[in-house]
Structure formats: structure tokens, C-alpha cells
Amino acid sequence: MVTLRLRPVDTKLLRDLWRMRGQALAIAMVAMCGIATLVTMRGGYEALLEAQHSYYERYRFAHVFAHVKNAPLTLVDRVREIPGVNDADGRVVFDASLDVPGLDEPASARLVSLPATPGTGLNRVHLRSGRLPETGNRLEVLASEAFSTANHLRPGDSLAAIINGRKERLYIVGIGISPEYVNEIKGNSFPDNRRFGVLWMARDALAAALNMRDSFNDVAVILAPHASEQRVIEQLDILLAPYGSLGAYGRREQVSHSFIDNELSSNRVSGTIIPAIFLGVTAFLIHNVLLRIITLQRAQIALLKSFGYGSFSVAAHYIKFAVLTVMAGGVLGVALGTWLGQGLAGLYAEFYHFPSMAFRLSGFSIALSLVVAIFSAVFGAWLAAVRVLRLAPAEAMRPEAPAHFRPGPLERLGLQRYMPLPVRMVLRNLERNAAKSLLSILGLALAVALVITGQYTFDALNEIIRLQFRTAQRDDVTLSFNEACDLSVAHNLAALPGVLRVEPFRSLPVRMRFRHRMKKTVIMGMAPVRELRMILDEREQPVDLPQEGIVLTKKLAEILGVSAGDALTVESLEGKRASATIPVTLIVDEPIGTFSYMSNAALARILSEPETASGAFLAVDPKHQAELYSTLKSIPAVGSVNLREATLQSFLSTVAQNMKINTMVLVAFACVIAAGVVYNAARIALSEHAVELASLRILGFTRGEVGRMLLGEQGLLTLAAIPLGCVLGYALSALLSELLSQELFRIPLVVSTRTFLLSIGVVLLAAAVSGYLVWRKVQKLDLIEVLKTRE
């Protein structure tokens, strides 16, 4: 039989852990929150990245895309001959308006041709159910999964579509997904699966409907390994320019891929910065606790050294205390993070449509999490254990030299005469232990800051909704036409049922250049007088568009590296491809998209054409909405209809919902950390002042007076920490706002009074609960035992 014998120092370690189990548990809970965040975010990132990579490879997702007016099929062979091109696929793509059963509002779909031979070509379709459309049957379609699920469509159902001016009834024969539309997004908006979807048709059927039997209007390209994407795009633009190309672009600018890429970037930040903050607080807590323990256990350290234990052995004893405490939280954090990660993977499966999506926690992620936990424990413990290495046994056997007391600010100002004795004692103790007081204030301030950081995302989302969807966008309906029309179309639209106001606009795809930077974007040519779509300055005042010049959003200006007063080179990607140098007159900050604005008249002058409209903003009488929607479904010239409230709901159900779920978890973790920080501060204070409190009891002070002195000190520290915590919370929020902002949308730096008050309330509640637990300890204080014990 093997008997396990512990060394005396290890026995002491177990006793210390049991005696300080409350503080050890608080530290373990803080570590658990940090590790759980790291595991959740890292696991979700790995799951999404793996699903994306395998899907793209297996179904041959293209690297480069281009859209043209009409090009002969023979041109595809010339595309394949471009150096760096591995394969190319010429397709027919058309946006059609839909009449979906059970949906009052107009919808739209992107019709995409399927190759004649199933299972070939690029951006291949994965069949979820049903079958592929048969060649020769022009009315059969394969519907995208997100669109069919949102509208409760199944194989066998039908819907009406206007294709090339003719109304057709299309029959759904299957449900599918494609790597090209992991997110089904039209333009620079958000997924609205109820009103926009993808329909795949046999190539001969769609080409016949659009009179494009021997031609194509969309090309996708797969690059050879190590090929230069930029060179291929340049050659492709030259080749396709005579056929009305809008300019080739890479995956980074492909809408669906860009949306997922933004999510992955967000996860990288969330999985790095936030756990680092949590684990930094863990290291700070460990440092504070062990620093106080070492001070209180001077005599024990001296005895250990006198019995032959070296400085490193004694220091290792305290490092073990930290590692065991944090590892207990780390193991719980891995388990909790795995459970939360599975929920995150389920959330991704709803938003992103992959053939398979599962949360798999890799060995690397587990190892990384535990290594990070151990590092934070060792780092925090080592800073405190350095004292052990410097402490000589003979010096440690003597009690710590009493503090050198001198008159403080209270005495010098003569204020002590106006304060009760307990208050004077508390303030003097804080004055004469300034370093310890500042550390306690910093720890409590970090607790406030973490709760603010977790909460501020809600404020940012509310600000985006208020600014973008309530203040700037006041239209009810946005129409996009199949082709640019004369401005007189506004009079025709005004005659439609329920239309109260019409504001036409011109949307022009362009390529902007400034020095070595280039960006494909859209210029919105707008009327000089507007009420439905406002451009706002930093004071939220409407901006008048200049007669000459262009207004850029802040994000677009950052991408191009321009400032107000610089001149941009702008090349139209439509018609004659006019090019002009335009001065930047103003930069405005908008939370969503990367847009630019000009007056419609100035835009027409650049294009050397009359003023035209490619769409219109409408204000609609709610009483006649249904009648208007029914009318719009039958107008061939209308390519798509976007509803402001539908766009808002789409934003709330995608980006906002994901952010809210993550934020709720972070707020819960931040509250746990706040409670841990406050409880540790109170328990350390009790350990340090136990002898003093017992002495006061002997001198005749009541339990209530002694408890109030201890808790009064903690209360003052907490109140002093709140302003600093608010400043740190705002700074952390600013950091996350900068790191999490993306091209699709930016997170504004807005921290409301409600968030500050709620965060302060959480910390005060944690302080009250911790104070109650410490009060109970004070009531049970054994005076004789405390006075007999040197530490």
C-alpha cells in the first residue's frame, strides 16, 4: 500500500487554501470568466473559419468577380488565358421583383444560371432538399435556404416574378445553398431573408428569358496558387471594358464574404482583448492578495527559511497558491466556455448557411486557455513573491517596523476637531497606508470599468438605430429601378396610391483613387432640397450638398486616406466611363456603410448627361401601404423595393442580436469580476486589521462601532474608486469601439448616463453584499485568539 506524504510546506498550502477559501473562490471565479470568454470566442472563431474554408474549397468559391452588360460566351476562353487564372465561369445573373405568397410587401430575388452539367462550374450549389431544375424547363427554380425558410416555401410551391418585363410563375423544385451567398445580402445592407433571396435556374431557361443564349453578363474566376489578384483584376478589366464591365473585384469586396470576414475579425478582437482584460484583473487580484498574505505571514516565512527552505522554495509555495486557485477557475472556464461556444455555433448556423457547422474545441485552444491562465497566475504571484526572495530570516522573525506617523492633512488643517473619533481613525488609516489604499481603489475602479465596458454596446446599438434609422433615414420605402430613368419618373411615382412625397436619387458605381489607394463604391446623387434622406454633420444638422465637390463618409475617407480639401480621381463604371477630379468638401460620420454624396446636377455634369434617377425615396401613408405594395409588384421598371422598418428589423436580427448576446454574457462576467474584486478587498482589509479591531473591542468599542470602522474604510475606498472606474470604463469602451468597427458598420462611442449609473449600482451592490459577509466575520471575531496570533 502506497502512502501519500505531503511536505510540510504543501500541508501549509492546503491549509492556507482552506482558510482563505472565500478569497480563493473569488479569484477562481474571475479566472473562470476570463477563460470562458477566451474559449467561447476562440472556439466560435475556429468553428466559423473551418466551416468557411472547407465550404469554399469543396464548392469552388471564386476569388474574383465581374459583372458586364452583355458579353459573348467565347470571351470566357480568353478570360481563362489570363496569366494567374486557373478557371473561369460565364453566367447569367438578373435581379427580378417577386410576388411571394403570404407576403404583402414586394420582394426581390437574384436569378443565377446553373451550368448545363450538374456539379460543374464555380460557386456550386449544395442541394438541401428536392432536386435541381431540369434543362429545358424554363419555369423551374432552386430556392435559397434562408429565403425559403423565412417565407415557409417548400419544393412544389410557386411564386410570381417579373423577368425582362414579363410576369412569370416560377415553380420551386428544390432548396439549396451556395458559398457565394452564405449571407444573402443585396447591396451594402443587411440580410433580409424575408424580402430578398437567390433563385437558381437552368442556364438555357434564364438565358432565353433575357435574350442571352450565346452570351453572359457575370463572370467568376478561380486563381492559380500564388497568383496576383490585383494583376488578374487589371487584365480582366481591360478585357471586359468594351462590354460594359462595372469593374472586377476580389473576395474581400464580395458582399457575403465581407460580412463573414467582418464577423471573424470581430471574433479575433473579442477573443483577445476582452479575455486579456479579465485575466489582467485576475493577475492584479492575485498580486494584491499574495502581497498582503506575505506581509501577514512574515514570521511563518522566517520559520520556513530557518528550517532550510530556500527563498525560491518559499516563493514557489505562494506561486503554487496562485496557480492552483486560477487553474480551478480555468478548468471551470473551459467547461463553461465549451457550453457557451456550442450556443454560439448554433447562433452562427442560423445566420450563416453552411453544409455543416459544429463547435469543436481544439487541443490548441484548450492548451492556449490553460497556458494563459497559468501565465496570469504566475505573473501576479511573482510580483508579490519577489518580497520573499529579499526577506532575510532574522529580519522576518521580527515584527514589521511600525509605520512612521506624522500629522496628516486632517491634523494640519485642524479638521479632526469636527469629526467623530471612528471617522478620524478611518481617514488616518487611509492617509498612512496610501499605497495600499491606491491599490484597493484601482482594483475597485477596474470592477466599475468592466461593467461599463460590457454595458456600453447596448448604448452604441441604440445610437445607431436613433441616428441612422430615425434621424437620417426618414423615408418609408426606397425604390431601385432596373435602369436609370428621366427625373419625370418622380411625377409618376407621386401618383401611386399612398405616396406622400418622392425624392429621386442617382446611384452611380465608381472607382475612387487617391494617390496609391483605390476603392470601388457608389456616389449618391441627390436633390438639393431633401426631407426623406438627410446627410448630417457632427452636430446632427442637415448638410447642404455643394454645387461642386463631393461629401464622403468618415470610413470611406479613412480607406482612401483623404481629408477635406483633397482632390479625388473618380471614374464612372457605367456608360462612357467618364473620369473627373473632384474636391472633397466635407467628411461626415455615418455608422453604416461607406458612401459618398453629390448634388444630382453636379453628378450629371461629370457624366455629360441630363439629370437622371436610378431610384427614389418615398414617404407613404400607412393607410394605403398594402395598396401601394400591390401596385409596385406589377411595375416592370422597379428592380427592388427596400423598406426602412424591414431594414431595421434585419439589422436587429443579425448584427445587433449577435452583439447583444455576446454583450449579455460579458456583462454577467463583468458583474462576477466586480463582486470578486470587492469581496477580496474587504476580506484583505479584515485580515490586515484583525489585531487592531480586537484591540479596539478590548478598549470598549462595541461590535457595531468596530464593524462600521472597517466597513466605513471600504465604503470610502469604493466611493473614491467610482470616478476613476468611470474614466477607465470610458477609455476601454473607446478602445473596443475602435477595434470592433468594420467597413459595414461602425460602433459609435456612446456611453449613456444609465450605463454609468447601472455599473456604479452593480459595484455598490457587490460592495454591500461583501460588506455583509465581512460583518458576519467581525461578529464572530475571537478576541483572545486574534491577539495571541502574531499575524
UniProtKB/TrEMBL annotation:
This is ABC3 transporter permease C-terminal domain-containing protein. One of its GO terms (cellular component) is plasma membrane protein complex. Signal peptide: none annotated. PANTHER family: LIPOPROTEIN-RELEASING SYSTEM TRANSMEMBRANE PROTEIN LOLE. InterPro entries: ABC3_permease_C (IPR003838), Lipoprotein-release_system (IPR051447). Belongs to the ABC-4 integral membrane protein family. LolC/E subfamily. It comes from Noviherbaspirillum denitrificans. It comes from the Bacteria.
